[in-house]
Amino acid sequence: MGKAERRASRERLKQERLKAQQRAKRNRILGVVGAALVVVLVVVGGGYWFLTASNTGDELTADLPPQTLQQDGSVVLAKDGAKAPVVSVYADFQCPACKQFETAVGSTLQQLAADGDAIVHYRPVSIFSQQPAPVSSNSLRAAAAARAAADYGKYVEYNDVLFENQPAEGKPGFSVDDLISWGKKVGIDDPAFGDRVKAENKVVDTYTGDYTKKLMKKAQDELGTNELSTMTVGDLLEWGDDNGVDSSFLDGTYVRQTLDATIAAYTRFTGDNKFEGTPSVYINGSKMGNEAFNPQQLKQAVLNADPGKVDTTPLASDEGAEPGAEASASAEPEADDAPTTDESPQAKE
User: Fold this and answer.
1) Is 104 in a helix, a strand, or coil?
2) Which end of the chain is less congested by CB atoms within 10 angstroms, N or C?
3) Could you give the domains of the chain?
4) Where is composition skewed (Low complexity) in this entry (predicted)?
């Protein structure tokens, strides 16, 4: 993408953010109270927080189907040979709305996958990566640990534990000791898992500490607030590399993979399907609304949909990081330590 195209893209993003702010203002003065369901919509770091009452999902009554790690770090949960709609779930482990979503329909999605009625594509992202710590560090540290758990085929179980233990927004949480302990809880006994979690935490500390402070100050001084407000994480990383703020310490890490997945989510969809925050749920590439939080409505939408196709490539056993491969303790890991994504920014679900 050339400079002119990036400027045009940032201007469009700026206008969309202004519209989102106007919508948020209207939402703050609206309340909807029902006898059986209360839904509160709050804009949280670009995501939507739906608090649902008396809205519980199906209990999982079968074993989880196979979990297949993809080259971009996402995970596909599906029966072997399943021909079913693809339900893509974009979530941030620090996002309160994502916890509400998982509480409401997480087990329903797992049951649909176990029954062969859905292919569930878990796509972890970090919408808080540009926010101050601890919200940014919580988000990235959890995502990197979940990616490490995926190396052992335990992503879904670890996903559930992370949301069960989500720290309050703005409070420190997802400590290294807890992340390692939760790995053991879901059946990961390899000490290399803990080594990877520790190494990724050092990368998170560097990213959310000195690197982000230096990058944001330099961008603020040279670009100004208006220009900076239109830039995505990808824009900032690219600009920093071109202007003396080196991001190479992220190469080969699961932190970088999470950032890349987030960048791709914002560029993958357009129009009514545009990715605007977490949780975002798509069935065969079509974005769902509030009904995604209702287990019965979500299940019916899946059953009514045509079979879909996963748009990512499975990670071969001899590719990328070995389970528990350790990122450099100096926060400058080698690029071969983790798989790279083959997703085009313009790919569709």
Assistant:
1) helix
2) N
3) 3-337 (3.40.30.10)
4) 316-332
Per-residue tokens: 261: 């997945």
In the chain, the largest separation of any two C-alpha atoms, in whole Å, equals 57
- The answer for residues whose C-beta is within 8 angstroms of residue 106's C-beta and 6 or more apart is 57, 160, 163
Structure tokens at 108: 């329903």
pLDDT tens per residue across span 74-94: 999 999 999 999 999 999 999
Residues 191 and 212: beta-carbon distance below 8 Å: no
- Exposed, middle or buried by CB within 10 Å (0-12, 13-18, 19+), for 137? buried
What whole-number distance in Å separates Cα of residue 349 and Cα of residue 310?
7
Q: Are 85 and 302 in contact (CB under 8 A)?
A: yes
CA end-to-end span of the chain: 22
pTM of the model: 0.77
What's the one-letter identity of residue 223? L
Instruction: Tell me the sheet residues that pair with 281.
Output: 89
* Structural tokens at position 332: 């400058």
Are 106 and 89 a contacting pair, CB within 8 Å? Answer: no
pLDDT > 90: what percent of the chain? Answer: 69
Is there a cis peptide before residue 65, judged by omega within 30 degrees of 0?
Answer: no
Residues 6+ apart with CB under 8 A from 212: 130, 136
Phi-psi label, residue 104: left if phi above 0, alpha if psi -120 to 50, beta otherwise: alpha
The 10s digit of each residue's pLDDT in 237-294 is 999 999 999 999 999 999 999 999 999 999 999 999 999 999 999 999 999 999 999 9
- What span, in angstroms and rounded, lies between the C-alpha atoms of 242 and 252? 20
